[in-house]
Design a protein that fits this description.
The structure is a single chain. This protein is mainly alpha-helical. The protein is built from six helices and no strands. It has one domain.
Length: 108
Amino acid sequence: MNETAQSEAESRNTATARPPKPLSFSAKMRKRIMGNRIGEILISEGLITADELHAALVEQKRTKEPLGTILVRYQLITPAMLKQTLRKQMFKKFLKAGAVIFVCLFMY
């Protein structure tokens, strides 16, 4: 293959490969806040395992019940543990929302 044909082939390959679409500001914030899911918090604290979470999520999909209700019913956590975890989840969301407002104030 000569140099011209090779450069044309390379330009075709790079032309078809598109860079990933950048996330919008709201999509970035949703992604950050979603890292705050109750199951992820419970796993990170060692209160449940990933397998237990998966089983509860399957049940949640079937019954449409809140995840915390299912975890308590399966006796994987106590109602007090659920209440404490929900407090942590809301506190994290509150802190993140406050940080966003703080950053936005200084951007404008």
